[in-house]
Amino acid sequence: MKKILIIIAMLLLVLGFNRGASAWIYVPDQGDTGWQTYTYTAGPEGFTGTAGFVVSNVIDNAAYSELLLDNLSQGGAGNSGFQSGDLSGYNLVGTSFATVSTSATAISGNPYSPTLGDFLAVIQGLYNGVTTTQFYNATGQAGTVGSILETEITLGNTGTFSFDWAFLGNDISPWNDFALFYLKDPNSGAMVFSEGLAQIGAAPVPIPASVLLLGSGLLGLLGLALKGKRQDG
């Protein structure tokens, strides 16, 4: 029995470090991502519903991060960005906060200009914003408050929806503020897709193949040990 317990402890130690692959971009304390472009491709059935953008504070309310957004387009036809100079065509959820501006500046001093035309949106994770406890960053921390901006999209067979974004991580670890994108069904209101964009903090350290092989070997040893125990009994 002692041998079995030792093997189990070793197995948990090895597999406890295993983390799934992530698409998140990690920024250092008070860091920012620079402009990025994200593209979602619908399946053969297309998609009609709500696209949402979240910037969330985590735990503290001493500082808040921001999500910049511009150049939203779908299906390669037209643009639904912010060239009207306001949030026409968009919906701020609850007590969310967002402004339309001609520029933005990160704490680092990095300047941001619109990627299309004269205006970009600045979505703010303010302390008195809407609840974001239903969302989590890549390290499993739930949001507290922040802002959510939504817009309606319609995509045909394998149609695409793209947007330019930048995350201004104006806080510090371990309060790892984050931003993400989601799609919501218009009938049920259920979230049918979500993708992490960025968060404050360091990326998980990849597990070497040798460690994974060791974990696999320990599983085998555990099986043999349990089998032997049953036979002894």
Q: Would you summarize the structure shown here?
A:
This protein is α+β, with helices and mostly antiparallel strands. It has two helices and 14 strands. It is 16% helix and 36% strand.
Distance between the termini: 11 Å
User: Residue share in helices?
Assistant: 10-25%
Can you give the mean pLDDT? 82
Per the CATH scheme, the topology name of the largest domain is Jelly Rolls
Tell me the number of strands. 14
The top-level CATH class of the largest domain is Mainly Beta
Helix run count: 2
Helices and strands, in order, run as HEEEEEEEEEEEEEEH
**Classification by helices and strands:** alpha+beta
Please state roughly what percent of the residues sit in beta strands, choosing from under 5%, 5-15%, 15-25%, 25-35%, 35-45% or over 45%: 35-45%
Q: How many domains, as an integer? A: 2
Q: Write down the Rg.
A: 22 Å
Question: Sheet bearing the most strands, described?
Answer: 7 strands, mixed
Shape: globular
Q: What is the second-level CATH architecture of the largest domain?
A: Sandwich
Regions with little confidence, pLDDT below 50 for 5+ residues: 1-22
Give structural notes.
- About 15% of the residues lie in helices and about 35% in strands.
- The chain is of the alpha+beta class.
- It folds into 2 domains: about 1-20 and about 205-233, no CATH class; about 20-200, Jelly Rolls, CATH 2.60.120.
- Strands 1, 3, 5, 10, 11, 13 and 14 form a 7-stranded mixed β-sheet that branches. Strands 2-12-4-9-6 form a 5-stranded antiparallel β-sheet, with no helix packed on it. A two-stranded antiparallel ribbon has the order 7-8.
- A hairpin with a 6-residue loop joins strand 13 and strand 14 (about 190-200).
- The model is unreliable at about 1-20 (pLDDT under 50).
